[in-house]
Inverse folding.
């Protein structure tokens, strides 16, 4: 008789205490599955992964069959997993198995059923929400104060003071005004701000009897620009001078648009050029062409990458938030001026936080104490980083 | 009424988009208004194209100055529209997955006229326009970069460091500096300027712009600023 | 000297354009004939891109978003080529998408140039997949955050995303261990950071290749929200030399094809153009100071 020397290797041990909890303060569909590891490698083999499975009940006309669907395989050192894209209308049950070189071990006991509920608020965005509330509160309070008669002092913005002068120049020279409201659509706030400035410039142009030409890169912007300019002409009492064909759609293609505008500038030689909106690579081509024809150029954009080109080539440039302040500055309405003050408070808060953070980070780097480190971690956590 | 209805549409749509970012039960509202915008923008294209055709046709018929450009515009517009919609040159059934559907190929597939216009028309022209920037930036540099004051001198010095540091010239000019002075090598200085000074300035501008956007949006959402509909006083 | 100053003051800008044309064309012709390129030493931002891809185990999925069009292909195509080259060499599964209407053409060209030419063993839909263009700009990113298949339901070849082996295990954009965006403007790297990285609480890792004009703006996000960055053709040249050096170390006898040297070749014209600009700035200031001195002399 020959004795068998082969030994049977046991299957890997399943984990214990498998629990499934709904991820709180989310938009639903997520559950965190967690477990406690059994003694790893109890069968002598190195455990490679945990396999998480979800129970699914397949309803036939006559029977209901229970199947277990693999959700994910996670590394052995991980003791929890976030299952996502789960249905919201029924409870979910999970189980976990250990996986090693031999294969999949026996599954753990099932978790209690849990609903992947959709919560009221997305908790990960709480800092952003509070920030919006604080800035909005500052703006609204300042608007109310302005309405109540408190004077609002705004510094001089040279580019906006020059609008009248620029329009007057075009009238004297008998040449037209060119206004480009950027190359993006009406869903871009810079385009809306550009159309706002167009309204003011068009009213001044109507009063001075100057021609204003507005080529656009989007059809919707053409329509909005026509509405704005027509309303301005009517407000100035010059509705007969309004010509909608001067506000025309050219093309959506960025360089096709700038080729048209550049060609128009070289042929028609407008006396004044306004560039107010969202621009990209074409900004330098427009500004340099305007410079070569001797036009007075006033630009405004919130695209920080294009600001250097406008600053180098234009007579006046509205930098970033100055561009958004244009409407308030030109209209001088108390409500709008108040909102500028509110915006300044937002900047004050941001600046204060930056200074506090920079000082704390410097102190932690130079004199690392637990109090300083805790304060810095608290600030980082509060700001959501 | 003409100003009241657009104002309320803007207010309702704006707040719906805002709520959809924070309150999961309103998630779909933002998507709905986003889709509405896409549809409206697509329909508005018909108006834009109509305006383009009308203005250029009028220019051609009146023989205004530059009417030749208008004629070329109209011809290119019509030809591109025709070959794109008609899928001229596209193989009738290139995709075996849709064998039952004739003309299931892409309008710009290999061999199509639309693809030819893209490859031999649009690509060279847009690349050429983009290349103009190199010439214009040189003429702007010659004309505008003057050392008028201290700030301008600082700007010019930074410009020289970056211009030379981003090329092999920087390595040639300062590559001999010993290791302990490697921070003064032009290529390292240019990285330092970008990472420290430029980043600080850009962050400040970005924060200001973000607050400007927030305040402008709030003015529109609250109906305080209606000048985007045209000045009324 | 006075005559020279007068010429500078009244210089027609077309002479500057001619000088720029010569400064760029000269090196192009020289490099075209000799094939020589300038040596490149990589900066931390470019090395970070290379290292981020090298750190991925073979078989990992990588999302490549081609957010550019032919206008910026001069700056971005070389980096797109090298990025796909490194991903293919590492054995990564490449998922191509485009958020610009002309992006799919750029994807097709890169797939043809790199994958079909040098990695013919890679199978479409298994090792790489082209999901084409989706309109909507940042709305597409917001949808991808929770449901990738909803944002890109079918591939460019018409297969449903749920049936594509390369996308197995990808439910949302956060499931990609790395996202690479090749960005020319809007929508681009900044929108990816704002709508994907920030919205996911910083869990999503992104590297970008961008145009020179965007680079100063994106430095504000590097290295926290943006793991690595290839800024302009310089960044592309640095990255290209890293990739070529790494692959050459595995096969020293192989000759690097010209298509993997494009960025380095373009550094020659860049050197010429930059030297010209430095000269023009100096000449412009000579004329400026001479004019100022003349005015002061006349006034006194």
């Amino acid at each position: 008789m020959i004795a068998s020397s082969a030994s049977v290797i046991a299957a890997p041990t399943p984990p214990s205490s498998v629990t499934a909890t709904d991820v709180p303060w989310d938009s639903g569909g997520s559950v965190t599955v967690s477990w406690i590891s059994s003694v790893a490698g109890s069968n002598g083999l190195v455990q490679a992964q945990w396999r998480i499975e979800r129970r699914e009940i397949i309803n036939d006309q006559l029977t209901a069959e229970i199947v277990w669907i693999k959700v994910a395989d996670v590394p052995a050192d991980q003791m929890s997993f976030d299952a996502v894209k789960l249905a919201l209308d029924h409870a979910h049950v999970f189980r976990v198995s250990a996986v090693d070189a031999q294969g999949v071990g026996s599954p753990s006991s099932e978790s209690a059923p849990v609903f992947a509920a959709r919560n009221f608020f997305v908790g990960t965005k709480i800092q952003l929400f509070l920030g919006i509330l604080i800035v909005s509160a500052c703006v609204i309070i300042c608007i109310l104060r302005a309405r109540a008669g408190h004077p609002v002092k705004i510094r001089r913005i040279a580019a906006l003071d020059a609008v009248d002068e620029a329009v007057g120049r075009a009238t004297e020279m008998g040449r037209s005004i060119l206004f480009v409201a950027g190359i993006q659509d009406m869903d871009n706030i810079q385009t809306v701000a550009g159309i706002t400035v167009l309204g003011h410039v068009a009213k001044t142009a109507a009063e001075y009897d100057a021609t204003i030409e507005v080529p656009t890169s989007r059809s919707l912007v053409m329509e909005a620009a026509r509405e704005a300019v027509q309303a301005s002409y009517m407000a100035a009492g010059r509705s007969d001078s309004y010509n909608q064909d001067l506000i025309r759609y050219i093309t959506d293609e960025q360089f096709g648009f700038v080729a048209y505008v550049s060609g128009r500038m070289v042929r028609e030689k407008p006396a004044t050029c306004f560039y107010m909106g969202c621009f990209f690579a074409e900004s330098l081509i427009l500004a340099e062409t305007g410079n070569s024809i001797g036009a007075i150029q006033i630009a405004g954009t919130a695209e920080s990458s294009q600001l250097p080109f406008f600053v180098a080539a234009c007579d006046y440039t509205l930098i970033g938030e100055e561009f958004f302040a244009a409407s308030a500055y030109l209209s001088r309405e108390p409500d709008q001026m108040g909102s500028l003050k509110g915006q300044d408070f937002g900047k004050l808060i941001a600046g204060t936080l930056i200074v506090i953070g920079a000082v704390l980070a410097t102190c932690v780097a130079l004199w690392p104490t637990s109090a300083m480190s805790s304060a810095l971690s608290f600030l980082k956590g509060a700001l959501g980083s | 009424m003409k100003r009241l209805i657009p104002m309320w549409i803007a207010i309702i749509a704006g707040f719906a988009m805002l709520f959809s970012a924070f309150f999961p039960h309103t998630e779909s509202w933002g998507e709905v208004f986003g889709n509405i915008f896409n549809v409206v923008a697509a329909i508005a294209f018909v108006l834009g194209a109509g305006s383009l055709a009308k203005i250029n046709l009028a220019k051609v018929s009146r023989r205004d100055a530059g009417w030749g450009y208008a004629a070329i515009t109209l011809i290119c517009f019509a030809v591109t529209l025709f070959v794109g919609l008609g899928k001229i040159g596209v193989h009738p059934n290139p995709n075996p997955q849709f064998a039952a559907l004739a003309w299931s190929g892409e309008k710009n597939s290999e061999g199509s006229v639309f693809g030819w216009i893209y490859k031999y028309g649009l690509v060279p022209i847009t690349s050429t326009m983009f290349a103009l920037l190199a010439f214009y930036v040189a003429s702007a540099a010659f004309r505008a970069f003057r050392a008028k004051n201290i700030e301008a001198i600082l700007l010019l010095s930074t410009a020289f460091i970056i211009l030379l540091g981003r090329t092999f010239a920087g390595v040639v000019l300062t590559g001999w500096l010993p290791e302990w002075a490697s921070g003064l090598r032009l290529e390292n200085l240019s990285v330092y300027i970008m990472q420290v000074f430029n980043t600080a300035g850009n962050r400040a501008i970005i924060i200001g712009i973000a607050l400007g956007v927030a305040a402008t949006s709030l003015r529109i959402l609250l109906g305080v600023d209606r000048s985007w509909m045209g000045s009324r006083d | 000297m006075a005559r020279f100053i007068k010429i500078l003051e009244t210089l027609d800008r077309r002479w500057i354009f001619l000088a720029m044309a010569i400064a760029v064309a000269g090196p192009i012709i020289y490099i075209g004939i000799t094939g020589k390129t300038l040596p490149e030493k990589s900066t931390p931002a470019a090395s970070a891109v290379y290292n981020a891809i090298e750190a991925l185990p073979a078989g990992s999925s990588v999302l490549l978003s081609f957010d550019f069009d032919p206008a910026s292909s001069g700056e971005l195509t070389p980096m797109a080529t090298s990025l796909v080259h490194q991903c293919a060499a590492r054995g990564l599964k490449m998922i191509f998408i485009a958020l610009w209407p002309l992006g799919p053409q750029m994807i097709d060209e890169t797939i043809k140039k790199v994958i079909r030419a040098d990695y013919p063993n890679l199978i479409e839909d298994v090792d790489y997949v082209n999901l084409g263009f989706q309109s909507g700009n940042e709305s597409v990113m917001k949808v991808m955050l929770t449901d990738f298949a909803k944002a890109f339901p079918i591939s460019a070849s018409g297969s449903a995303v749920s049936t594509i082996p390369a996308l197995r295990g990808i439910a949302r954009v956060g499931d990609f261990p790395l996202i690479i965006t090749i960005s020319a403007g809007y929508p681009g790297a900044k929108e990816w950071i704002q709508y994907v990285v920030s919205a996911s609480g910083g869990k999503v890792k992104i590297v970008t290749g961008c145009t020179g004009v965007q680079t100063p703006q994106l430095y504000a996000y590097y290295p926290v929200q943006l793991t690595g960055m290839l800024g302009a053709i310089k960044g592309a040249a640095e990255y290209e030399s890293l990739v070529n050096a790494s692959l050459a170390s595995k096969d020293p006898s192989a000759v690097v094809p010209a298509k993997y040297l494009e960025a380095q070749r373009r550094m020659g014209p860049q050197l010429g153009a930059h030297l010209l600009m430095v000269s023009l700035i100096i000449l412009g200031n000579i004329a400026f100071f001479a004019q100022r001195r003349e005015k002061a002399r006349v006034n006194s």
Notes: Chain B touches chain C through 47 residues (CB under 8 Å). Chain B has a mean pLDDT of 86. Residues 27-62 of chain B form the longest helix (36 residues).
